[in-house]
Amino acid sequence: MIEQGVSKQEIFERTKQTVGLYKVNFDVYEGETFVLMGLSGSGKSTLLRCLNRLIDPSDGHILVDGDDIATMDDKELREARRKKMSMVFQGFALLPHRTVIDNVAFGLEIQGISKEERYVKAEEAIAKVGLKGYESSKTSQLSGGMQQRVGLARALATDPDVLLMDEAFSALDPLIRSEMQDELIALQDKLKKTIVFVSHDLDEALKLGDRIAIMKDGVIAQIGTAEEILTNPADDYVSEFVAGVDRTKILTAENIMKRPDPVVSINAGLTVALQLMKKHGMSSIFVVDPDKVVKGILCVDAAAPASKEKKEIKDVMKTDISIIAPDIPIKEIIPIMAEDALPIAVVNENKKLLGVIVRGSILSALAIKEED
Amino acid sequence: MVLPELPIGETVESGVYWLNDNLGFLMDIFSDIIDMLISGFKDMLLFLPPIVFIALITIFVYLISKKNTKLAIGTAIGFLLIDSMGLWKLSMETIALVLSSALVALLIAIPTGILAAKNETAFHITKPILDFMQTMPSFVYLIPAVIFFGLGNVPGLVATIVFAMPPAIRLTNLGIRQVPVELEEVATAFGTTPLQKLIKVELPVALPTIMAGVNQCIMLSLSMVVIAAMIGARGLGYQVLVGIQRVDIGQGFEAGLAIVIIAIVLDRLTQNLTPKK
């Protein structure tokens, strides 16, 4: 009906059924963490459940390694659920009558794997999530954070390609949540699973997601990396959505640096340097060698008297300058700026100058968003 | 205006006679099975001398109730009291009747409850039947039971089974329906077959509720087995009935006390079997 151009409201009135999702198209790349992000009712959890068909989509395709989950018969679907994808739930959903290790081994048990073998694998998974020693505990004795570790271990035990995580950390208190996020990132660095993570918390999405899809009313409003979404929101909804984000955590040196222009060569004379500064109205200038490697910074108040004494740039430039890598977040740049009034050089791993950050660039980067 | 008189009573009566005439052989087989069951339990319970049996049951209760000393001592005292009142044989007969009827009732009730939980049509069919079974006065069951099976233990047991089944069906159905959605999703998401889901997730999670149904079933069996003495079921109920007919207060009270003791022990025992959350 949607394809015939009927509105969602009209479909509801005519069929008493709500359109949960439509025109949802996205790729998740192998080994990435893909976050489905949106407010409640936006269809993110429904979309996740369509991926393993806990909810059957009425139309469309779900391709994993080229196999279409949407058209599988019961047997193929069971096989895919057992081997290819596993799921972590918001309310942990541990089986109350089982111990930790029997919960973790659940997926393997379903596959009909022998007890010894599944316990070996389950113990590995328990160690991965840092619960060694709790194997025979009852799940009700564990704290929320630990229970969700069991949930995560259960999902990892079957060694699936895809992990579906439905608001996995939303039920945890903020401190534990943040801790679990860090651990998931660390685990993911090692395991390189393909993760589809549902979240209503934008900070969480930005922290975990290699890419993020922002959903609204069953459609995807925007897909992109954290920076893309923050710096270039696709529509008003997205920009409103990201308005409250702490940009200093997300934007990096690379996003706010200015082109390193002009710079002065270390072999040039002081007069040239002074002239460049005067022309561009700057009080300092970076000194580079012919390979654009930063050597130091020359300040006007040091350069002016020195030029009369016929000194060279390398005699008067300051060499203890602040240099940072391009992926440092603004949050960490601010304290450096506060200590030292001089501009900061952004350099690559070979110390080649990529850009400069002055106080004004941080302020304008943060201010732009307020205007939107 | 005069309302036409509907022949409901006559229809049911002729239906019962028709069943008896045409399905009599099935009734006979059923009757034999139940008779075997009862005498099996009875022989088992009366195999040992009372003192040895009481000692064994006390140890059994102690172990199964996770070292509940009070319950074990209470059981020992209660059974010793029954023996000293000279009601041992009759009591064991009553317990045999209760165990047989509860066993048959549960064998029917639990699968029916599972079916009702899984299938909406089955649920809508069983619901009014259960309401009917539970609200119909229990004495009414005794009449067709007598027609089908004559007088004795078997018709008493059949009436008891019918009477004791509904709560077990209801609570099994309820327990499975109350399994949290997320746990159902866990089972599905990890690729269970419907049978694996039932055995590994739904039944264990529903077990406390199902056990409450088992407890109810046993307690109702006990209460009905006593009433079933009216159609010739043996045991303590018969003793009570004789007490009433002769206005023998002492005899009636002793039998009643024995029934209370048995009821308490069976109740505590089944409650202790229920896993705690």
From TrEMBL, chain B:
Does the keyword Transferase belong to this entry? no
**Pfam families assigned:** BPD_transp_1
Residue ranges of the TM segments: 44-64, 94-117, 138-165, 205-231, 252-270
GO biological process assignments: choline transport; glycine betaine transport
Domain ABC transmembrane type-1 residue range list: 91-270
Does the entry feature the keyword NADP, yes or no?
no
Q: What is its main location?
A: membrane
Entry-linked InterPro entries:
MetI-like, MetI-like_sf
Regarding the membrane, this protein is recorded as: Multi-pass membrane protein
Give the Gene3D superfamilies listed for this entry: MetI-like (1.10.3720.10)
Q: Which domain of life is it from?
A: Archaea
What GO cellular component entries does it have?
A: ATP-binding cassette (ABC) transporter complex
* Key words, A-Z: Cell membrane, Membrane, Transmembrane, Transmembrane helix, Transport
Q: Which GO terms describe its molecular function?
A: amine transmembrane transporter activity; carnitine transmembrane transporter activity
Where is it located? Cell membrane; Membrane
Which protein family is named in the record? Belongs to the binding-protein-dependent transport system permease family.
Question: Can you name this protein?
Answer: Glycine betaine/proline transport system permease protein
